[in-house]
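ENTRY TYPE: protein
CONTENTS: sequence, structure tokens:
***
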Amino acid sequence: MKIKDLRRRRRVRRKRGIRKKIYGTSDRPRLTVFRSLKNICAQIIDDEKGLTLVAASTLGKDLRDQIRYGGNIEAAAIVGKALAEKARARNIDHVRFDRNGYRYHGRVRGLAEAAREAGLRF
């Protein structure tokens, strides 16, 4: 089995274990993170209704000119700050953090800390 496939399978297995415990409600939606090698995306999701309430990404039109390269901690911090600002505009201040099987390290941590500094609580 190739190493990339093995790593992806392990992450998906960890993701399933995390998702058994974390569930987004209307009061506390779920903030989920997806990272690829070149970009990072974050969404705030209400699992009861099955809706994405707020989203931000390094590929988004509003952030594209601020970010030179989307695969670093600085870009993740910009995305986290933008996501928190959008969430606060929609009166969302408490979320549950879903790291989506990734380690709480590097870009995932940078996004989470920037979102906390901008006013989200989790």
